[in-house]
UniProtKB/TrEMBL annotation:
Keywords: Cell inner membrane, Cell membrane, Membrane, Transmembrane, Transmembrane helix, Transport. NCBIfam families: mfs (NF037955). GO terms for cellular component: plasma membrane. It comes from the Bacteria. It comes from Marinobacter mobilis. GO terms for molecular function: lactose binding; lactose:proton symporter activity. Coiled coil: none annotated. It is found in: Cell inner membrane. This is MFS transporter, PPP family, 3-phenylpropionic acid transporter. It is a multi-pass membrane protein. The chain crosses the membrane at residues 20-43, 55-74, 86-103, 109-128, 148-165, 171-191, 211-229, 249-269, 341-359, 371-391. Residues 215-405 form the Major facilitator superfamily (MFS) profile domain.
C-alpha cells in the first residue's frame, strides 16, 4: 500500500516542476525582448537620424498597441477559452511582422511595422498572466518565482546586447533582436494545450459593475499615472545616460541592476503580502518611485546615486506590478479575469506609457532629459494622492495574500 500511495505523490511533484518551467520559459523570452528593445531601441532610432519627437512617437507605438490589443485578445480569451492558441498566434505573427524592420523604412513605414509587430506581441502577456495564475492553481504565491524568470531574461539580454553594441554599430540591433523573437515562438509552443474550449466562465458580477467601483477606478488611475511617469525612463533613459558620458555596456549594466532588484523583490513579495496591506505597500512603492525620478533628474553624474536609483526599480515596477496582478485576480474573478488583465495592460502600460513617452519627447526636445524626469516625479505625486484618498482592497480581503487563495 505504501508503494501505491507514493507513486501519485512523486507524479504530482514531477508534473508541478514541469509546469513551473514551462510557465517560466515564455516569461524569460518575452522580457528578453524587452531587454533588447527598451534600453537600446531609442539609440538605434537616434542612429537612424530620427529627431527626439520622432523617437518618442516611435517608442510610443510599443505602448499604443497595448491599449487595443490586450483588450481584444483578452476578450477572445475569456470568450473562447483558447488562450494558449492565441498566445501562439501572437508569437508567430509578431515575429514575422518584425522582419519589416530590415527593410529600413522611413518614419511612417517604420511606425507601421512597429504597430503591427507590437499589436501581436503585446497580446501575449495579459493572456499569459491568466494562463500562469490558472496553471499555478491554489499555489498562486509562487507567481513571483515564475515571473522572476522574465526579469532574468531581461537582464541576460540587456547585458549581452550592451556588450555587443560596444563592439559593433547600433545599426546591427535588429539582427540581435531576431533570435529573441524565435525564442518566444518556440516557448509559446511548449505551453500545454488548452483543455477544451470554454464558452463562458463563472464570475462574480458584471464587468461594468466592477469597473464603476471607486476603488477599481482609483487602481487604474494610480497605475495610469505610474506609467506616465515611466515614459521618460523607457524612452530617454539610455540617451540621458549617454549624454552624461556612460558607455553602452555601462548603460546595459544599469538597466540590468534595476531588473536584478526587481527579481529580489519578487522572491520576498509573498512575505510582504503577509505583513502589509495593498494600500500600505502601494504608498511606499510610489514614494520610492518619486525619489527615484528626482535622483535621476538631479544627480545622474554621480554613479553611486544612479546605482541606488536603479535599485528602486524594485518598487516602481516590481512591487507595483506584482500587487496589480493579484489585485485584478481578487477583483475581477474568473469570468472577467482576462479582460481585467487586458484593461490593466491597455489603460496603464498602453495609454499611460504612450502619453508618458510623448510628453517626455516634448520636454526633451525643448528643455532636455533632466526636466523630463521632473515631469515623471510630478505624475507620481498625483498618483500618491489618488492612492492615499481612494485605493481600497477587494471586498472582504484585507491583504493580497487572502485574495490569492
Amino acid at each position: 500500500m505504501a508503494t501505491l500511495s507514493l507513486k501519485p505523490r512523486i507524479s504530482r511533484s514531477a508534473e508541478g516542476g514541469a509546469i513551473y518551467w514551462r510557465l517560466s520559459n515564455l516569461y524569460f523570452w518575452f522580457f528578453a525582448l524587452l531587454g533588447a528593445l527598451l534600453p537600446y531601441w531609442s539609440l538605434y532610432l537616434q542612429g537612424r537620424g530620427f529627431s527626439y519627437l520622432e523617437i518618442a512617437s516611435l517608442m510610443a507605438t510599443i505602448q499604443i498597441t497595448k491599449v487595443v490589443a490586450p483588450s481584444l485578445w483578452g476578450w477572445l480569451g475569456d470568450r473562447t477559452g483558447q488562450r494558449v492558441r492565441l498566445v501562439r498566434l501572437g508569437a508567430v505573427v509578431g515575429a514575422i511582422s518584425f522582419l519589416g524592420v530590415f527593410l529600413e523604412p522611413a518614419f511612417f513605414g517604420l511606425m507601421l511595422v512597429m504597430l503591427v509587430f507590437t499589436f501581436f506581441w503585446n497580446a501575449i502577456l495579459p493572456l499569459y498572466e491568466v494562463i500562469t495564475l490558472r496553471g499555478l492553481g491554489s499555489d498562486k504565491s509562487r507567481y513571483g518565482r515564475v515571473r522572476l524568470w522574465g526579469s532574468v531574461g531581461f537582464i541576460a539580454t540587456v547585458a549581452a546586447v550592451g556588450a555587443v553594441l560596444d563592439r559593433v554599430s547600433v545599426a546591427q540591433l535588429p539582427w540581435l533582436v531576431l533570435p529573441v523573437f524565435l525564442g518566444i515562438v518556440v516557448s509559446a509552443f511548449l505551453i500545454p494545450s488548452d483543455q477544451g474550449v470554454v464558452r463562458k466562465e463563472e464570475g462574480a458580477g458584471s464587468l461594468r459593475g466592477i469597473l464603476v467601483e471607486p476603488a477599481v477606478i482609483a487602481f487604474f488611475l494610480m497605475n495610469f499615472l505610474l506609467q506616465i511617469s515611466h515614459g521618460a525612463y523607457y524612452t530617454f533613459f539610455s540617451i540621458h545616460l549617454e549624454q552624461y558620458g556612460y558607455s553602452k555596456a555601462a548603460i546595459g549594466l544599469l538597466w540590468s541592476l534595476g531588473v536584478l532588484a526587481e527579481i529580489g523583490l519578487f522572491i520576498v513579495m509573498h512575505g510582504l503580502f503577509a505583513r502589509f496591506s495593498y494600500r500600505q505597500i502601494a504608498l511606499c512603492a510610489l514614494a520610492l518611485t518619486l525619489l527615484r525620478w528626482v535622483l535621476i533628474a538631479e544627480a545622474s553624474d554621480w554613479l553611486w546615486v544612479l546605482l541606488f536609483s536603479q535599485l528602486l526599480h524594485a518598487a516602481s515596477y516590481g512591487a507595483m506590478h506584482a500587487l496589480s496582478v493579484q489585485y485584478i485576480h481578487g477583483y475581477f474573478g474568473r469570468g472577467h479575469h482576462g479582460q481585467g488583465q487586458a484593461l490593466y495592460s491597455g489603460l496603464t502600460f498602453g495609454a499611460g506609457g504612450a502619453i508618458g513617452a510623448w510628453a517626455s519627447g516634448f520636454l526633451v526636445e525643448g528643455y532636455g532629459t533632466d526636466l523630463a524626469f521632473w515631469g515623471s516625479a510630478i505624475a507620481i505625486a498625483f498618483a500618491l494622492i489618488v492612492t492615499w484618498r481612494w485605493l481600497r482592497p477587494p471586498p472582504g480581503q484585507g491583504s493580497i495574500v487572502q485574495s490569492a487563495d
